Amino acid sequence: MINMTDAVRRKVKRSDLIADQIKDWIVKNDKKPGDRLPREHELMALFAASKGTIREALKVLEVHGLIRITTGPAGGAVLMAVPYEQCLESVYSYLYFREISTGQVYALRKVLEPELAASLVNRVSEDEIEELLVLAKRSHPDEGGDWEARRNIELAFHDRLAELCPSPLLGMMCRLLNDVLRSMVLPKYARSHNVDLEETITDSHVALVRAIQRADAKKARKIMAEHMSDVQHHGHALETPVKRNLTLQPNHTF
Amino acid sequence: MINMTDAVRRKVKRSDLIADQIKDWIVKNDKKPGDRLPREHELMALFAASKGTIREALKVLEVHGLIRITTGPAGGAVLMAVPYEQCLESVYSYLYFREISTGQVYALRKVLEPELAASLVNRVSEDEIEELLVLAKRSHPDEGGDWEARRNIELAFHDRLAELCPSPLLGMMCRLLNDVLRSMVLPKYARSHNVDLEETITDSHVALVRAIQRADAKKARKIMAEHMSDVQHHGHALETPVKRNLTLQPNHTF
DNA sequence: AGATATTTGTTCGTATGTATT
DNA sequence: TAATACATACGAACAAATATC
């Protein structure tokens, strides 16, 4: 049965309790990103705890990505909108001891990406359309680079779509799947240089951007659905558990 | 552009670096849930850091839910599969400063829950079928309890489905949406005692379990899709941003 | 550019609590 | 019950970073 009390009961340490108290303080005082938390010494007085304990409590918020701590005068803990990477790191930890197959990832992308595509209609500027077009064309096999680099560009295109998504939840889920694909599946991917498929991919991307530009949600959803079928059939061959990861690799830049 | 180096570069503190080193140690030594990490003193020697720094590093892993630290002899840090609640807490932090509408939540459930239903075919035991049936019937308006209690039972049914899902990713996403609904949307929900709808909901749940029992994936998907349309239309009226939360409430038990 | 004040970061010593044997 | 091995908490001192004058 659903029982959250176990998770809550596990918080017996003073630092964990104080972490929750600080969270309550944030909600209660309606603090926004950029606002500063009280200083360590003030927190020590506020919650009647020693420096070490307060620091452990702040560490909890910092690990969640809720605050950034800087030294020096005018330093301290400032609130911030949690960056996506922090969320990803937690989800990676969650998935580490669970078996994921490539088929499961593709199955999810198949239903989520079409929704993503449709959600972007009337939501992207002309500049962003242009940016997407450039990115889409860069994944064409004639553009050079090796096979893996082109796959990364392809995923970067999907990442950009997710970033532009007006629904934070949908955007997060799509980026999540992209990252799982990138860091866990791609390295195992058989290097099957299927040029026909690669051209189809590029064409789909371009057609998709055009549909979004024309504000044709129905067409955008359809193109993405077909696109997902294409890559699913290709990737489905390797029905293997994905490689596991705990730390984020800084290889995502290109 | 996608640039993970910022997130990585932010880790300049010794404790964060050591946390990553411990993660690498876990992956390298192929440690599994239940295995123990070296003692504090050994870790101090291994990574040449003081007690406080090691403690902060362990704190990072503990916040992610990757280890649980117990006191006493034979105590210390033991590895564990990250509980779902820990993942949820991170996602809550991620969503805290982002605007989410109820419509976005329902739109996602509409595409994910049917997949969840289909994924359960041939994956649940007779005992679990029986358990689901009991749970399904408990949400009937004749079963007593107030409106909110019945909504919670309804969500508990969906939670159980997600727990049984063979795909960790899909299961996690569905539970996530349930929790967002429960803790952020339900409290605002107009108490519209629509008895007809409530009976329809119970019927759908029962029919769904029967379809799963008959291993009829197509029917299961269809029933869930219609079910999602029903509740979406009802909940869609309140197109408001959802209430924000940072700490998990232990109210989920009933 | 350099000194200084302010704030976090790190370390140590010690005392306390807690679970095992 | 007592001895133990360990984590937890506190306080004080010092180190490092950084904004400001």
Structural commentary:
The structure is a homodimer of 254-residue chains. Chain A folds into two domains: 4-79, Winged helix-like DNA-binding domain superfamily/Winged helix DNA-binding domain (Arc Repressor Mutant, subunit A), CATH 1.10.10; 84-244, Four Helix Bundle (Hemerythrin (Met), subunit A) (Up-down Bundle). Chain A is 62% helix and 3% strand. Chain A is built from eleven helices and two strands; from the N terminus they run H-H-H-H-E-E-H-H-H-H-H-H-H. Chain A has a two-stranded antiparallel sheet with strand order 1-2. In chain A, a hairpin with a 5-residue loop joins strand 1 (67-70) and strand 2 (76-79). In chain A, helix 6 (102-119) packs antiparallel against helix 9. Chain A is elongated. The model of chain A is unreliable at 1-9 (pLDDT under 50). At the A-B interface, helix 1, helix 2, helix 4, helix 5 and helix 6 of A face helix 1, helix 2, helix 4, helix 5 and helix 6 of B.
